[in-house]
Amino acid sequence: MIDRPIKKLMLIFPPVVFSPESVKQxxxxxxxxxxxxxxxxxxxxxxxxxxxxxxxxxxRLANGLLRYGLSFSQIKQQIIDFEPDAVxxxxxxxxxxxxxxxxxxxxxxxxxxxVTIVGGSHPSFLAEKCLENQQLDFIILxxxxxxxxxxxxxxxxxxxxxxxxxxxFRNNNIVQINPKTxxxxxxxxxxxxxxxxxxxxxxHKINLPMGLVSRQTPAMNLITSRGCPFxxxxxxxxxxxxxxxxxxxxxxxxxxxxxxxxxxxxxxKFFDDNLTLxxxxxxxxxxxxIDRKFxxxxxxxxxxxxxxxxxxxxxxxxxxxxxxxxLAVESGDPNILRDVLNKPTDLKxxxxxxxxxxxxxxxxxxxxxxxxxxxxxxxIFKTLEFMNKLALDRVSLFIANPLPGTRIFEYCRQKxxxxxxxxxxLDYFQSKFETEEFDSxxxxxTRRNWYWTYNLKLFLRNPFKFFQNYNxxxxxxxxxxxxTIFHKLLIPILKS
Length: 496
Hints:
Elements: E1 8-13, E2 16-18, H1 30-39, E3 44-49, H2 50-53, E4 58-60, E5 66-68, H3 72-82, E6 86-90, H4 97-110, E7 115-119, H5 121-125, H6 127-130, E8 138-140, H7 145-156, E9 167-171, E10 174-177, H8 200-206, E11 219-222, E12 225-226, H9 237-240, E13 246-247, H10 250-262, E14 267-270, H11 279-292, E15 297-299, H12 311-319, E16 322-330, H13 334-340, H14 347-359, E17 363-370, H15 377-390, E18 394-399, H16 407-415, H17 440-461, H18 463-474, H19 478-495
Parallel strand pairs: 1-3, 1-6, 6-7, 7-8, 11-14, 14-15, 15-16, 16-17, 17-18
Antiparallel strand pairs: 2-5, 4-5, 8-9, 9-10, 12-13
Helix pairs in contact: 1-7, 3-4, 10-11, 11-12, 17-18
């Protein structure tokens, strides 16, 4: 460990690995911008979003996936130029861990004295496995601001960090994991993300945000709450952010929106897991947006729980600029929702809410997943038929995969469905496990056929809405559109 105070900290969002059947999406990474805002009064902080800086640089990997972002040599040179005392890397997706490991190795080749720290979903739930990498010094578990600050301060003061909450490290070559038990109660105290440390013009120029659609540009992502009281079996959010729902005050959110308005932002992407969970607060927020006359357009690419919506809420959402609501349906079979996913979803309620949303002339977008363990083919087709019945304006149809930190991951491991526990190339378009009921070929073919058939029906049913949703590709990015169709539809069909 270095024997000098930590003065310079580099925060890195690494290159992204994605499926050829997916589409590259890019927005400012909230994780490192929040960390930078929390730490920059005490340390000299530099942000490096290797994904946006190398957005045009694509590499095909041996496993068939694609990677975009700066090369390892380019990242290494940025580290050399900044001369940090510590580097913290986000590992948001399991598919990024091999990239993170390589960056840690490159850091130690520059200087053994640079402290390497990793945070994010994958290392938070597989800390012991990740610390097999000897070039990785520390892992921050879950919410990172306080833990990272406490760690850097302890190192700088040559103090003991062994009891810091939510920290994993090697202690005399034995992995020590201090469980995450403490979260920031009043998240109004966290400064707004340090977006000024990122090249915002690059995100605006690319203009391919999460969920892909936008009505106005520039757009910006925003989160108004942390924590999730639900324990859905396929999601790790409640473990990463804690079971307690911690909303920011409406006044605090409005202050950030005023800042974004002053920056020229015209559209908001709410990244909350539970934007409308506290119904009175959500209504107060939307009313404040109306009263302030922000004139933002906005949507919810991360999904909304249908049971939290009502006609008054939807009306306020519409008046405040909402043009699309994402419904996280997941399954169209009530038994799968209840017994396998532990998800508090009422399918009849989703049907009713979707009709109300449409009546307010707000577009509907739905998430559906097939291929859960314990799911039968009959139940898979039940989900697909429910997807057709809802007739939403857009859908994303995914294949279930066992993400670390979820109950499904543990179930698949216990059942022996995971043939290669070291395979981290998880995505939502390829199946990583097979059961007695289905295999990967069935899932991938079924997903592809139903997804593209649905989109064709959408075009035939309402061509105006189709062009409204996808005009960004058809008219402003025609080559991107045709390239997407070629790689995401034609190539998979020919292969199958």
